[in-house]
Amino acid sequence: MRFIITILFVIIFSFFSKAQITLKDTVVEQKLGEVLITATRTYRQLSSLPLPAQIVSEKELKEVNTTRLNEILNEQTGLITVSEFVGGEGVQMQGLDSQYTLILVDGVPLVGRSAGTLDIRRLTVGNIKQIEIVKGASSSLYGSEALGGVINIITENPKKTGITGDLNYRFATFNAQDINTSINYKKEKFSLGAYLNRNSSDGYDLINAVDVNTVDPYTNYTFSTKLNFDLNNNTNLFASGRIYTEDQDYTPTSEESGEIKVNEWNTHLKLDHKYNKKWSSYFEFYATRYIAEEYLNSVADNSLVSESDYDELLMRPEIRATYNPNDKSTFIGGIGMDHEVLERTDFTTKPIFNSPYVFLQYDTNPNEKLNVILGARFDSHSDYESQFSPKAAVRYELSDKIALKGSVGYGFKAPDFRQLYFNFTNAFGGYTILGYNTVETELAQLIEDGVVNENGVLVPISAFQGNLKPENSIAYNFGFNYKPISTLNLDLNLFRNDIQDLIDTQRIANKVSGNGVYSYTNVNKAYTYGLEFNASWKPNNQLKLSGGYQYLIARDKDAVDAFKNGEAFASISGQGSIELNEDDYFGLPNRSKHMANLKVFYDFEGIDLNTNIRGTYRSKYGLYDTNGTVNGYLDKYDDFVDAYSTWDWAINKTFYKNYELGFGVENIFDFTDLPESDADAIYIGNIPGRIIYGKLNITF
Amino acid sequence: MKTIKLLTLLTIFIGFSSCSNDDDDDPVILRVESESVSNLYAPQEGGFDQMGNPLPITGEFTKFDFSSGTTTTSTTDWDIAFRGTNIIINGGTSFGATDEPERTGNAAAYMENSTMANVLEVDVQLLQQDSATGYVLSNWYDYNPVNHIITPTAGKILVIRTRDGKYAKVEILSYYKDNPAEITTEIATNDARYYTFNYVNQPNEGVTTFE
To answer: In chain A, which residue's Cα lies nearest the Cα of B85?
Structure first.
């Protein structure tokens, strides 16, 4: 498959390089450099950054006709959206799981990671100006969660004065409907915008043998509003609010039926003031709350089977200042505090976190060719070890055409509430999971109640008197950018992430019944490394062609040792075990060694028509151990999801300037990987097959 | 009686075939036997009630005797016994579970991370007996909390001293009837607790090798 893509690349490149000669005389649009804020928290040109970063433009978002964030991220090089164990889709970056990527909207985070993953299907893309993706640990600016990188969704601001608006409707397979409208008002110093989205689907059922949907029907609404007011030439007030609400049926088995309701809001206030040429300040207040309620009833007698509530609140005041001593250097510093409260079923307490933080970054250009960024942040915390996160990055222009980039940074992810305060006993399995901070009291209680025999304690209670450490990593990125001609851009980045103190469950006691008591501990070390290559070629205003490739190795260090030392074994279908060696280790689950994408965008300028074809490829990957290997390590004898590629096509035509009709097919070749029997758990649950859609946009 | 016959035959055989050794007092060397057992049924009662609340596990253990290679109902002549996922040995003291048979022998055991072919010798230092702390042979499987399927952990070899001081090694292949390649929900629900295992028996008392 990789060969096919390579060949395709070569063919298309050679075809268009011929085409280029004939189009040589066409005036190429002078493109203003793309600017992003996520990488440094100051506006910086993408092409001048010392860090690996990408921007998904509004133009691309509009032309590909996607509706949710997961769909568009999945098409970006090195990113893959992964279905998680408990539902929801997160994004994997540089081979790091979705809980290690920080998701921001206009620079502030979303919460609601009830099982670690932030479900990015929650985010509509209808009102997005651009998506900024910064790879590599970024805790020096953002603190917790920015271990693999940061994805920042920048929402749209009103562009034209007066009242403007638009109405968009998309209808697709599975009765998936997306309708959104925005109304904006703008005067010289004032702008106000409102956006409303309704998104619904009948869901789908991939497994016909079972009378249960793969994705249950859902309906959600997003309402957001944004205000900008220039109080005077130097002072700007920004206020925004967002409400999200979703209802989804919940039918895990044919005997049970329930509902999941999600309610989320966030509010964001910011006051910018420019004192003089050198000094500016930002006062910011942000609050968000995420509430998820679910219940499950028995279909037979309507009695309650289970109920679960999750209610998280985050409040963050922050003050930032920038100082430009000269036009070569910028300092940005900030001080703030995260106040978090969580109320949740199966928690012994209602935990409250307060973590004050401070950060400082120095961005300087000692000469025209060199850019250096040095930054650090300190996060203080009561319930886990405080963190100091430094970062350094350098970019050096060897010539007009080639620039070298390198960065080293520290990233961490705070233990989540669950890892600290869970107290859960599974009714069916009979096992108990205790958060690290609850072990001392709860395990003592279990012993007192006679559930656990004193002899059954495997890890002494005294081991839980300290603090759980945040999972942390050091990220190295090194690469270059090469622009041999103005229409061609080549970008290569080598990366490595050394992750340690990964939090895993461990069995801490045996119950008299033979079941286990589990808690969390810092044990695992892992690493990922690889390379990312991006190429884009825009020979004229009509055509844009881009391709990306990521090579990835992601491994658990203990697994590497176990395979090396002959401690890993595999059962070969009922014939007994064989010993595995170093070469048999496949790496972490859900990682593909090769991922690639290819996109062709074409504008038929004279007739207001644009079309595009996009393909993504991922090589084989494992989901979990299928042959009894210790600790669930994957080896080459396991069952894997085979390599696959999907191709999307879209076409849009504008009529009478304000009306646009779109049509497209996602997953043209109707690719699916369905389970062969109910014992086959190695399949793809989030690719339902071909999707055909039509859309209508009206702007006014 | 059968054993004696076999012993006699073997003695004669060895007596004829061994030329280098004329000493009549030499012990009789029996050949190491490689065997397999299919569908040893180890039912249990209790566990959980309809609502999922834990109940005490009850019911008789299914006992196995290495020297005869069969299950047995004898109260003394057994080496290991199975009930659900629990495996006990005829040596040591009770863990306190309901319906545990009385341990009359001197069996002991340990688990080695290896393959059947690579366990060539017993490390007698590692041998342990069942006790109030738990069963020696408790950690042989993985439990999948999603589909509740039990799979033997690969590379877990059960090394056992039998009740009468002989040695055996065991590898469990399956917990489901007829050792199915794929364990469907139906099999997991209806055909569980049927052990299939390979074992190698060293029938000579005190000999700690399997070659």
So the answer is: A514
